Amino acid sequence: CVLVRFKDGAFLGGNFIATVGIDFRNKVVDVDNLKVKLQIWDTAGQERFRSVTHAYYRDAQALLLLYDITNKPSFDNIRAWLTEIHEYAQRDVVIMLLGNKSDMAAERVVKMEDGEKLAKEYGVPFMETSAKTGGNVELAFLAIAKELKHRATQQPNEPKFKIHDYIESQKQKSGCCSLG
Ligand SMILES: Nc1nc2c(ncn2[C@@H]2O[C@H](COP(=O)(O)OP(=O)(O)OP(=O)(O)O)[C@@H](O)[C@H]2O)c(=O)[nH]1
């Protein structure tokens, strides 16, 4: 749903079919007047597809790890995902942690601070998102696009792009609205 929100700006809640194996979508974003084509692979979360998804880690330049703020086991699984990433992904892969469903405040079981703490422990950027409202969804993908663009085009005399600082300056804590 987060990927569909980013790609199509829509949320088709309730009517979703679980990802079987792997799915991908392209989106071109503008980063500092340069067009960056993101090819985004959505891997199935279910254990039975694990052998398929492992194969895709190796070529990924960035990985977005999502948990559901209304589902504690999804948060508890993040450590296992990070272990997998270290085993199968490129060493310099950009990792981002997202706590999704920030619109569901009444059902929240994972505190924002706990997401922040875990992200800090692993040195990865973090934000809460909502595929339903669009909150922070564009920011998450844009921050990754910026990081990858800077890595690819960085000149020695240019200031280094700092993804953590960029996100902190842009993110909406409430997850209430899409980027204007
Ligand atoms: N309220 C709310 N519901 C959401 C949000 N994102 C996803 N959902 C709902 O959560 C369910 C699962 O969403 P998916 O995006 O299919 O989750 P997934 O982790 O990709 O699931 P798999 O395809 O099985 O890996 C669906 O019923 C969505 O409608 C959100 O931000 N807010």
UniProtKB/TrEMBL annotation:
Keywords: GTP-binding, Hydrolase, Lipoprotein, Magnesium, Metal-binding, Nucleotide-binding, Prenylation, Protein transport, Signal, Transport
EC identifiers of the protein: 3.6.5.2
Keyword NAD: no
GO molecular function, one term: GTP binding
Catalyzed reactions: GTP + H2O = GDP + phosphate + H(+)
Any one Gene Ontology BP term: protein transport
InterPro entries: P-loop_NTPase, Small_GTP-bd, Small_GTPase
Lineage: superkingdom: Eukaryota
EC class (word): hydrolase
Keyword Coiled coil: no
Cofactors (names): Mg(2+)
SUPFAM superfamilies named among the record's database cross-references: P-loop containing nucleoside triphosphate hydrolases
Family listed: Belongs to the small GTPase superfamily. Rab family.
NCBIfam families named in the record: small_GTP
Protein name as catalogued: small monomeric GTPase
